Amino acid sequence: MFESLTEKLAGVFKRLGGKGKLSEEDVVEGLREIRRALLSADVHFPVVKELTERIRARAVGEEVLSSLTPAQQLLKIVRDEMAALMGGEAASLRLHGQPALVMLVGPKGSGKTTTAGKLALYLRKRGRHPMLFCADPFRPAAAEQLATLARKIGVPFRDGDRDPTGALRAAVREAARVPADTIVIDTPGSLPGQEEILGFLRDLAAAASPGDVLLVLDALVGQEAVEIAGTFAGLGLTGVVLTKLDGDARGGAALSVRYATGLPVLFVGVGERPPDLEVFHPTRMADRILGLGDLAGLFERVEEAAGADLERLSRKVRAGEFTLQDYLEELEALRRAGPISQLLSRIPGFGRVADDPELERELVKVRAIIQSMTPEERANPHIIGASRKRRIARGSGTTVQDVNRLLSQFEKMRRLMRQLGKRRGLPPGWEQFLRENPPGV
Hints:
Layout: H1 3-17, H2 24-40, H3 45-59, H4 62-65, H5 70-85, E1 100-105, H6 112-125, E2 130-134, H7 142-153, E3 157-159, H8 164-174, E4 182-186, H9 195-208, E5 212-218, H10 225-231, E6 239-243, H11 252-261, E7 265-269, E8 277-279, H12 282-289, H13 295-318, H14 324-336, H15 340-344, H16 351-354, H17 358-371, H18 375-379, H19 386-396, H20 400-422, H21 430-436
Parallel strand pairs: 1-4, 1-5, 2-3, 2-4, 5-6, 6-7
Antiparallel strand pairs: 7-8
Helix pairs in contact: 1-2, 1-5, 2-3, 3-5, 5-12, 6-7, 8-9, 10-11, 13-14, 14-17, 17-19, 19-20
């Protein structure tokens, strides 16, 4: 995510960090490079101008030039102003009414149907009772796709068929019996000039009066977000969902949308799975764009996906009982929180490790090796001699060297785990260990 922009901005601050004291000329040159990096990331030009002017107003003065760590102070200013430009604080759904109606609109191919399913799952996990409703009479198989998602995540579904407005009214009337306190409405995609679809959306919005009307945008649209938002402005938009952010190497839309449209970004899609929808936190997003990581987001994601499993494993660690079976279960728990590359990308300084295409393949290899061991070998790896290593390598489709590497990595980890169990906080050397042995490698 944002690899191109992050790398360029990191280069700017690395050069500035090499200077013990910054002159006004250094700051101006740094801002010039930041401007180039933002423009090359397809950030809307007025956004770039506004952001760099805000930074300049604070940076060319005593706050930075007199600081003991001027480059770090400038980095903080850039971070703060980026976050402010993206909204400052996380925004929430309104969820007005009983049931609350959340209508998703946007161009074709932006990911509305997938987002509808993700949003329903997000709401269900937070105690709501969502229903998915298909209001798309234009796209063949739209209802079937949404119905499949509803079954997958375990929420009720209703089809608008040929009369979406009438069917939606019926769904509202029966919501209390279902029960459903929120109806997420999927609608047809439209492009500028497709008046038939836009007219349908206006009529639906007028009849249903949804409390939330979310514009679903592909993060790769960049500056086009402004024109697209204008197409749907008459629908009473209340917020934006940015999809496919995990594939956005530039970051233009994330930085531009709030300023260009005046709408808060509520959620971002960071993967293809139903759980891959996250609340948009401007400060955390600024941190990720600047390569500072997102540890808060990492902890939240892991806790939600695998908190109970990891708590059980932590008790075993404190008791000094960590085995290869536990190691396998730990990796499986982390995988439920998302691809390992996504998790590592949230740790400051681990961006390059996370981008390694071999990461997931190595994780598959580790799982295969452990699964080829007997229960006794998983519990007591010290009994694994040469003949057992050859058998495990054959069974897992790997080499004896791969088995040796895993056993060596596990032993290092177990020693660190024992230290962790004896003290509060992470033991010395954990950062270096993770760099040399990221999970699954």
